[in-house]
Amino acid sequence: MNTNADLLKSLKIDRSAPPPPSRKGLWIGLGVAAAVLLLVVAGWLLFARGKAPEVQVAPVVAIGGGNGGAASVLDATGYVVARRMATVSAKITGRVREIRIEEGQHVAEGEVIATLDPIDADQQLALARAQAAAARSQVDATAAQLRDAEANAARLSALAPQQLVSKAQRDQAIAQRDNLRAQLATARNNARAAGDSLRIAEQGVDNTIIRAPFAGVVIAKAAQPGEIVSPFSAGGAYTRTGIGTIVDMESLEVQVDVGEAYIGRVQPGMPTEATLNAYPDWKIPGKVIAIIPTADRGKATVTVRVALDSRDPRIVPDMGVRVSFLEKAAPQKPQQKPGVLAPSAAIVQRDGGDVAYVVDGERVQQRELQLGRTLGDDREVLSGLVAGDQVVLDPPEKLADGAKVKVAPASDADSDSNE
User: Fold this and answer.
1) Residue 30 to residue 32: CA distance in whole angstroms
2) Would you kindly state where each structural domain of the chain is located, as residue ranges?
3) 285 bridge partner residues
4) Which residues of the chain have pLDDT under 50?
5) In the CATH scheme, what is the code of domain 54-63+338-418?
6) In this structure, are residues 381 and 60 in contact, taking their beta carbons and an 8 Å threshold?
7) What family name appears in the similarity comment (predicted)?
8) pTM value?
């Protein structure tokens, strides 16, 4: 009996013990953990996709084909130069009194651009005027004496045959007349010399006024009031040799260096098309003026002068320019669409073909290219790109079509390209 009672007691439910774990709670915990893991993975993927690589871009420019259906046979680079440019200086040494020019100012031919201190020149002029006046007075006085002597000699010559006067008196009167005639000639010569000295003194005063030798634009101002200027450089470091530099903008032209191997393609009078580095979308027509008949031994180039048909204030000396030498296409041949020029650094190999990546908004487009000639650091692209496209320089290996990119600031790209 006691044994059975003990067994029954052991089978009694203990309500104070904790309940066994529930299967439903376990599934809820696993679900929460999976959701947190999915959120972490999604956030990481979103962050990784949003972090676009930073790339540098360069523009694609057009070459040739812009002059009435003409095709480019040669491209060369050079600079805008002025055939008529002068650093204006004074003809004499003197202290600058006034400067009337500033950089960028237009001046007319003969316009006063500066003046020198005229004190010394004015004193020389006053002295020359006094000497000229004295010489003229001497001429007048000698002329009056000569008239009296001539009258006296004539009277005595008439009385001498009648023996009313002695022959000695007559001869003395004639000698005095001849002497005054010689004095008058000398006085007149002195007067002419004084007049010449006066004109020289006046020119000396005029030399203190510096005028523009031709119409143009001032590009440099070299002197200030109070400085000493001289046409010679013997005055030392404190003496200026020029007042300012003037350029005749009507004489601007382009000079390019063409390699000796290609100079045979260039002929005087052939049409050209110039593109300024500052304005890549502006095509300026022109023609070849002359081929300078000498070569640069070090660079193996020949200089070619090119005239520009356009006269525009945007064209200034020393601007970089690219010139396309054009040749009219044969009438029987269909005109081809002109190519464009792209940096060689933007062209890479993908799947055995030449491609470039064009930035379109925040993403890139992969373009298959058909290439032409190599022009320095650039390549001619016959198809696949158009002028104005922005292509990625040195695209990464993992850059794919449609990938998101971030364009580097222009200053960074420029500094890298200059290096």
Assistant:
1) 6
2) 54-63+338-418, 70-83+251-326, 85-117+208-247, 119-205
3) 273
4) 1, 47-48, 65-68, 234-235, 329-335, 412-419
5) 2.40.420.20
6) yes
7) Belongs to the membrane fusion protein (MFP) (TC 8.A.1) family.
8) 0.53
